[in-house]
Amino acid sequence: MRAALVGVDFGKGDFAASLDELSQLALSAGAETITSIACKRSSPDAALFIGSGKADEISHAVIDLNLDLVIFNHALSPAQQRNLERHLKIRVVDRTSLILDIFAQRAKSHEGKVQVELAQLQHLATRLVRGWTHLERQKGGIGLRGPGETQLETDRRLLGERVKMLKAKMEKLHKQRETQRRSRGRSNTFTVSLVGYTNAGKSTLFNTLTKAGTYAANQLFATLDTTSRRLYLEGAGNIVVSDTVGFIRDLPHQLVASFRATLEETIHADLLLHVVDGGSAVRNDQIEQVNHVLKEIGADHIPQLLVWNKIDQADLLPAIERDEYGKINRVFVSAKNGQGIDLLRDAIVELMQKTQVSSELSAEIGAELLSEE
Questions:
Q1: Please, what is the angle between helix 78-88 and helix 52-64, to 10°?
Q2: Which of 29, 1, 3, 218 is CA-nearest to residue 105?
Q3: What is the C-alpha to C-alpha distance for residues 136 and 282, in angstroms, rounded to an integer?
Q4: Which residue of 44, 254, 331, 345 pairs with 122 in a disulfide if CB–CB is 3.0 to 4.6 A?
Q5: Checking DSSP bridges between strand 237-243 and strand 91-93, what pairing results, if any?
Q6: Is residue 86 scored above 50 in pLDDT?
Q7: What would the 3-class secondary structure string for 189-201 be?
Q8: What pLDDT is recorded for position 360?
């Protein structure tokens, strides 16, 4: 599909990097970027998001370049999307819909598919309520409609029933995961979750650490389904390592909510390995975005180790960095060629031993307090 990318610079963050990320997202979704159109505004236009002059410029580009699609690097309201499609006479996709589409293509497991469909339907529901008013006028419907229902009411009801059914499925899957986690908890298995910005190299690191064969590719959202593997570490015994979905700037709320079940592996971990693309110019912003999502899902209290990945691309050497108190700050590795992986294993063992000592101390203090009472 031949697409134009549209970005509006509101003077926040690294605009060029966010437009580059949109280009990668479009490629991941299967679109070919033919042109990029950018403009500056202090605030979005209520009707078209961009000004009418810029909308005309895009309209000419659509005709001249024979485009199939226009992708906006922002979340559009249903009215803005509808107005733009009328003006441009072509399909318009916003950032939220684009990410949802990639997730729909990538979901492999039953759980992943249920989560994505739920997120898509919840996103569509906002379009139904405010964006499909033209359907109100349609009467009569074969086989589906209740007495006196308009098309929009029927669509809304059917969509509501499907959402309810998917939520029930999610609840069942959530209970299954809870049971698996409880059995792991009873055996006192130390759990580690890999988190990080999408395409930071989590799956490659997961494969290198555990010798697993999970899908890893140089593209956004290569991993959607949480994969867990046992890993034996010298001096620590068996631990469980989980690879999770990557985070991204402005991750749609529907996705965060729907993927809560998958991300619960993160919430219940003993340690988070926060994988960072050491070669990215916007890595600090990406670290911030990941921490924002972790806070959103209630995982910001879990001990975190920064893993500076792709050191081969950033001309850095494998190392363990410590603060002035001797506490490990960062580990520098290359998951691709295995540099620094032994250091990372050592760091996990050290942090694991410290966690166990502090939890034993907490248990002893608690027992003493109870005996005093």
A1: 50
A2: 29
A3: 47
A4: 254
A5: unpaired
A6: yes
A7: CEEEEEEEECCCC
A8: 55
What percentage of the chain exceeds 70 in pLDDT?
A: 77
* Residue linked to tokens 């509101």: 10
Cα atoms in the 13 Å half-sphere on the side-chain side of 337:
8
> Tokens 């996990």 identify what position?
348
Calpha distance 59→51 (Å, rounded): 12
Give the residue carrying structure tokens 């226009």: 70
Residues contacting residue 138 through CB under 8 Å, at least 6 positions apart:
150, 151
42 CA to centre of own chain: 28
0.90 cut: is pTM over it? no
Give the DSSP per-residue string, 249-292.
Answer: TT--HHHHHHTHHHHHHHHT-SEEEEEEETT-TTHHHHHHHHHH
**Of 92, 25, 99, 371, which is closest to residue 252 (Cα–Cα)?**
99
Q: Which residues neighbour 245 within 8 Å (Cβ) at sequence distance 6 or greater?
A: 221, 223, 224, 225, 226, 259, 262, 263
Q: What are the b/e assignments for 92-106, b being 16+ CB within 10 Å? A: bbbbbbbbbbbbbeb
- pLDDT at 173 (0 to 100): 77
Task: Output the average pLDDT for the chain.
Answer: 81
215 Rama class: left (phi>0) / alpha (psi -120 to 50) / beta: beta
Burial of 218 (0-12, 13-18, 19+ CB in 10 A): exposed
Length of the chain equals 373
Counting Cβ atoms within 10 Å, is residue 148 exposed (0-12), middle (13-18) or buried (19+)?
exposed
Strands 237-243 and 227-233: antiparallel
